[in-house]
Design goal:
mainly alpha, 6 helices, about 85% helix, about 0% strand, globular
Length: about 100
Amino acid sequence: MRANAAALIALTAVSLTTDLASAQNTSASQSNTPAHSAEQELLRKLYQDAKSAGDRDDWQTAYNLMLEAWQRRQASDIAVNLAYIEIELGKFRDAAEHLA
């Protein structure tokens, strides 16, 4: 299961980077604002911290961090990671909702 987790996280890292870059390019005026840049940086930090927590098998911390990211930006890449973490925690109903 740990190898699958690493692969899923690696794939979604590419997706997150691509989605973040795409979001920044979509609205040039918005991407130049300090608030938007700060939000993007916070999302990156939440993702990286959640990944580190998952690597340590600290799923509750990973869940809290990814849930915060989800509350800030409901995107498919975040939903997939959140669902994986919820599966690790036995929150199957919540995971199914995030994968739907």
